[in-house]
Amino acid sequence: MAFSRTARVALAVTSVGALALAGCGGGGDGGTAAGDPQRGADAKTITLTIAGNAAQGGKNTRDADWLVNYVIPEFTKQMAAEGVTATVTFQPSGVDDEQYKTQQSLDMRSGGGADIVALDGIWVGEFAQAGYIKPLDEVVGAAAGEWDGWAQIPDSVEQLGSFEGKRYGVPTGTDGRVLFYNKDLFAKAGLPAQWQPASWQEVLDAGAKLKALPGVDPIQINAGTAMGEATTMQGVLPLLAGTATPLNTDGKWLGDTQAVRDVLGFYQSVYGGGLGDPLLQQEAKGRDKSFQEFAAGQIGILLESDYFWRSVIEPTKGIAPMADRDSVVGYAKIPAQQPGKGPNGQNFVSMSGGGMNAINPGTDFPQQAWKLLQFIMSADAQKARLGGSAQITARDDVNAEVLAADPMLSFVSKEVLPITAYRPGLGEYPEVSKALQEATAAVVTGAAPADAAKKYQSALEGVLGGADGITTG
Amino acid sequence: MSPKELVGRVGLYVLISLITVFMALPVLWLLFAPFDASPTLSTSLPDWTGRNFGELLRNPDALPSIGISLVHALGTMALVTSFGALAAYALSRVKIPGRDGLLYALLLLSSIITGTAAMVPIFTLMTQIGLVDTQLGVVLVLTGGMLPTAIFILKDFMDGIPRSYEESARVFGASPLQILRDVVLPVVRPGLATIAVWTVVQVWGNFLTPFILLRQAERPAAVVVYTFYTEGGQADLGLISAFSLLYSIPVVAMYVFVNRRYGFRFHGGIKR
Amino acid sequence: MALTASPPAEPAEAAGVTKSPAPQAATDAAGLGRARASVFVAPALALIAAFLVFPALWTLYLGITNYRLTGVAALRPRVVGLDNYARALGDPEFLNSLWLTLLFVIGSAVIGQCVLGFVLAWTLRAVPRTVRTVVELLVMLAWILPSSVVAFLWIALLDRDGGTLNVLLNTPGMAWLIEYPMLSVIIFNAWRGTAFSMLLFSAALNGIPPSQLETARMVGASGWQQLRDVVLPHVRGHILTNLLLISLWTFNDFSPFLITAGGPNGRSETLPVFVYNTAIPGGQLGFGSAVSLLMLLINLVLAVVYLRLLKQRRA
Questions:
Q1: The pLDDT value given to residue A18
Q2: Domain count, chain C
Q3: Same structural domain for residues B141 and B199?
Q4: In A, residues 317-356, which contact C (CB 8 Å cutoff)?
Q5: Which long-range contacts (CB under 8 A, 24 or more apart) does B175-181 make?
Q6: Is A357 helix (H, G, I), strand (E, B) or coil?
Q7: At residue A209, does pLDDT exceed 90?
Q8: Do C33 and B176 touch (CB under 8 A)?
Q9: Exposure check for chain B: N or C terminus, fewer CB within 10 A?
């Protein structure tokens, strides 16, 4: 085989490639990023695009429908009244969240992308560090602070749209995690209908009683890598919060420590002690299946977000509807390891997540994009989005109105949100989270907590390139 | 038939039946689930309904996405087959130094480009030349990725055409282009049909390239099928199964058509 | 070469991958000429250069940086030289993926598709046309259905609760994809890709002069002896070409992801899945690109081994 010509061709192409690479640079600051906040402010004809991980007739169809049928026409009308012809479009996606994130990163890295981009709150740090998004003050100027809506958004919720103390966008909504339990099964196992465990041990004790019931998995606490972020959010982090040990303090990540070993020990008590189904944690669709099983009365206790209540077991429109949800399903706050062992001496803990809307720094019309974002986040628009259903939004005034009829969501809003915590929005978080998921996976498949914690530590060192940014002990 | 032959015959049919069951078993779900009122992952005779298809027709993305898939598949097929055939013929008939090495190098590189790691280079390249978010851009990237394999396979078909055909045509004074059109093309038609089907099948199922490159533009079926989730991110099995059936019909129909018309075979092809 | 009696095959052999055997290699029978040949090659080469070679080389460049899709390294990627390669080669997850990929290639392509394809091609010669058509259509169906559809079919087949396989085998609750993830995707891929081998071998078997089989039968050779003494020597070249292509395809196949997502705990995470998990959820594009180059090098080794074997056959 003669490679001489191949080599020549390759050489020629490489040099062309090198030139182009020099031209494109490393990417990141995305061309027109963050110029004059007033650019295009007087334009009479504008175009704006909204990107979200939703598609009509597909994933998050309600949000997509609302954007297309309410936000866009109403905002266009509002702009027309000001003498501006606005063309607003919605750019649908509706795929896996990681894939959506990839799409948005690619767009913003090359200076393109929609003007308003919906992001998961946890991505804000990574996007900010990459220069894909900029603080609102820089993108839209002084107008950013003048919005009256800020007064309605609690400080804790505002974290969702912030990074290093700066606002990068407006949070859209939040949630809270609780322990759901099946009152029918509890009655059969001789447990109280109004249940509020005060420690991890009390959860395990309840599980031990439920174990006597045939065909019932007493406890479902998400574990393993197949569940992905659900393992971290509905498992590791709420437990870790119960040891009053934050995952990240002053930029240092929590390594192989007593707290991590305790959390993994809890997993071992559940899955090694016959209180949970280890196989379910490894199935590709395990979380979906846990929903089905809870709805079918085969799971006693389930740690989930309020999403489970309003979208999964919702009696009519849920994906695993429970006609008797309101009478059969109870909910309790997640206890700390022992009473008072939570952060700030709390007895109970929770974790929250949620989304935010950022303005693309590369937009041609920063002022109008900000107006559109304010409109999206106005009380009227948010109420239109919910269309009569109840969900926790970022706004107190809207919550007070829409949650009134739903005791569970009111419970979350009043009792859980004040004690909740958010994930550290740092670039490394997704990989730290993955390492935690792997540690739980190891325990579920039989590893000792101490060994899994050791493996977690070395995975962490691999991610962070050394042990410097890790606390141990 | 001797007893021994009989045993052999029975054994043959048992073997073929086993293989047939193995091949057919997974496909059953596709035949039943779309018509089931509440489809699950288990295959069972359905509680017959056409509701899933009604819902599919109401979905704003479903039918257009099949059209876009057709645009991608036919566009890529046209480019890959025509350019691939021209190149394969020239490479088969004219000795170019380093030809085989080049072919193998390209074949290997095509594996990188179809992988995930190449997405930033491809996206940036397409942004720079203004083809991001266009159907043409998707077709070009797909074509570039498939041409090496197509040339590799087609060259074998071309190698298999007896030189004597072309030589006699030349004796009768035909020009190279005439020879290509009137002698080579008819002989190599099954090969072209094979490559055409192969291209369509590859494009039809490709998720990554259109997913990375398309935004506002209408998206193909391979991407849209992943958006069929219920409120809250559970796979909507009714919609997915009905769409899967609809999405499969065009490629299957094309195969049946091509197979009848040209024969889907590697006749003398791929020899070496 | 003595066995190659059919005329069409001869030039094909001659124009084969090595320059060695025949002097009349690549006869320019149509009088094409170099210039015209270049024009014929140009459009394909231009598209390949622009949309394949260029981004592929760029990917290779990313492999020596710490580039990431988000975070600080997205803004200011650094050239880290061979760090990514060193990290990959010392990474147990990578080595695990490499091992699984080799199992996948050997199990599903070399053993599964190649053997099943040959068996089908051989047996279907002796059955009535209608049987042949039906079986062939089923085999082709597995190959032409889009991968997302196929993934759903297999998830449904192997599902733990109501899966068809569990109903048939009466093994309720058997979680095939968790207990035997690698075996499941290997069998899946054998099912998925047998069509190519079957088609190729049917063509090859058709090329065997009936007279030779006839002669063998006359001297009383059993079916097995015919296969060994007449058929296998004749189709050895096809087998190797087939193995080369299906090995490369299988090595780079992403569809296991659609069925098991690489799980549980990486037990079916073949290299393409590893790259995906590194690059998309992990965001580490530099590292992912480096692994891609390692994959290419392994592909190269595979290709060279097959080509050597082909050459030996000629010698």
A1: 41
A2: 2
A3: yes
A4: none
A5: B176/C30, B176/C31, B176/C32, B176/C33, B176/C36, B179/C30, B179/C31, B180/B89, B180/C30
A6: strand
A7: yes
A8: yes
A9: N
Residues B10 and B94 in one domain: no
Domain architecture of chain A: domains with CATH: 8-175+353-422 (3.40.190.10), 177-351+428-471 (3.40.190.10)
Residue B14: give the domain boundaries: 3-49
Looking at per-residue pLDDT, the higher value among A3 and A385 belongs to A385
pTM: 0.83
Instruction: Tell me the residues of chain B between 28 and 87 that have a Cβ less than 8 Å away from chain A.
Output: 58-62
For the stretch B59-98, pLDDT in tens is 888 889 999 999 999 999 999 999 999 999 998 888 777 7
**Model ipTM?**
0.87
pLDDT confidence bin for B42, thresholds 50/70/90: low
Residue B45, pLDDT score = 67
Q: Tell me the one-letter amino acid at C243.
A: L
CATH number at residue C281: 1.10.3720.10
| Contact call for residues A384 and A378 (beta carbons, < 8 A) | no
As given in the structure block, the two tokens for residue C139 are 């085999």
Q: Does C80 touch chain A (CB under 8 A)?
A: no
Mean pLDDT of C117-124: 91
Contact list in B for residue C56 (CB cut-off 8 A) is 109, 112-113, 118, 121
Which residue of chain B has the CA closest to C303? B104
Cα A256 to Cα A244, A450, A460: the distances in Å are: 15, 8, 9
Q: How far apart are CA A445 and CA A180, in angstroms?
A: 25
Domain total of chain B? 2
Distances in whole angstroms, Cα of residue A9 to Cα of each of A14, A445, C306: 8, 52, 25
Spatial contact of A278 and A271, defined as CB atoms under 8 Å apart: yes
Amino acid symbol at A270: V
CB contact under 8 A, C17 and A10: no
* C11 & C120 share domain: no
pLDDT for C36: 85
| Cβ-contact C150, C191 below 8 angstroms | no
Under the banding of pLDDT at 50, 70 and 90, the label for residue A166 is very high
Helix axes B135-159, C33-48, angle to 10 degrees: 140
Does A30 have pLDDT greater than 70? no
A63-74 in b/e form (b: 16+ CB < 10 A) is bbbbbbebbbeb
Q: Does the structure show a pLDDT above 50 at C109? A: yes
Are B144 and B34 part of one and the same domain? no
Asked if A30 and A42 count as a contact pair (C-beta separation under 8 A), the reply is no
Q: What is the CATH number of the domain that holds B193?
A: 1.10.3720.10
Chains sharing 3 or more CB pairs under 8 A with chain C: A, B
Among C47, C159, C279, the residue with its CB nearest the CB of B143 is C47
